[in-house]
Amino acid sequence: MKNDVVTLDHCLWFNDIQLDFYFCWLMRNEKSPIVQATEIVCTLVTHEVVEFFTVQCCTEAKTVDTCSMKNIDHYLKANPDLLMKKFIFFTINKRNYHWSGWTAVNPWVQIARVLYEQAVAEGEEESYSEYSDYANFANGLISCDGLGEKGPEDARCVIWFLNLASAYCDMAIENKLKDFNFWNHTTKTFYMLGCSGPFGILDVKNDDRIVYKILELHKDV
Questions:
Q1: Residue 215 carries which DSSP code?
Q2: E-only strand ranges, 7-137
Q3: Residue 67 to residue 136: CA distance in whole angstroms
């Protein structure tokens, strides 16, 4: 596959079924601490996230996409502890000819950061003192694309997904998730649930409001 990227002589193509099978193989040892700390979002869900976000954010003609809403809702309800993972892998298929992806590293640290900074602003940092050492943990997004680097604009759909996961997590903590029915939402209101949250505010004109930053890896990685 690396030779394909360098020479652009594509001899092998992976589809979503093959990737999901490989992901299941990687996660086969449920007793492994690494596996327990990792979530690989299946390609069905990532495809639905990308499609739903792209239509609602980047196109003028908004469509009613309850199928994507249903699949995203089902996944997040089944994984209320998603943001507690150390690594979340999110794959993206571009026009059926190129796979890339993102890795969210320690997303829980970002939530701790936001909670502590809000507590400091309100003079209540003692109540959240256990979150004060968040800076000791690496956190952010890692771009995984053999064809080149990605920027904040490319990460918007992942930020939206993480914000939405945070909203579901809040509902689970407050014991309200079982009462949440996505059918009561329009595509617009469901989309808005992920537009603002601990990972940033999605503004098509200003990516500086995305606070979950892209990590820079060493050149040898």
A1: P
A2: 38-40, 87-94, 98-105
A3: 41
Judged on CB neighbours under 10 Å (0-12, 13-18, 19+), 138 is exposed
The Cα 133–Cα 112 span in angstroms is 9
What digits encode the pLDDT tens for the residues 6-33? Answer: 555 556 678 888 899 999 999 999 999 9
Give whole-number Cα distances, 143 to 32, 155, 189, 221, in Å.
25, 9, 29, 12
β partners of residue 67: none
Q: Which residues, at least 6 apart from 53, have a Cβ–Cβ distance to it below 8 Å?
A: 156, 157, 160, 161, 191, 194
Report strand pairing: 196-197 vs 200-201: antiparallel
List, in sequence order, the alpha helices (H) in 63-215: 66-78, 107-121, 156-173, 187-192
For residues 39 and 82, the answer to whether their CB atoms sit within 8 Å is yes
- The H or E element spanning position 143 is strand 140-144
Is 40:26 a contact under the CB 8 Å cutoff? yes
Cα 204 from Cα 173, distance rounded (Å) = 31
The model's pLDDT over 26-79, given as tens digits with 9 standing for 90+, comes to: 999 999 999 999 999 999 999 999 999 988 876 555 566 678 999 999 999 999
Question: Which stretch of 3-7, 72-76, 124-128 has the lowest confidence by average pLDDT?
Answer: 3-7
Look at the pTM and tell me if it is higher than 0.70: yes
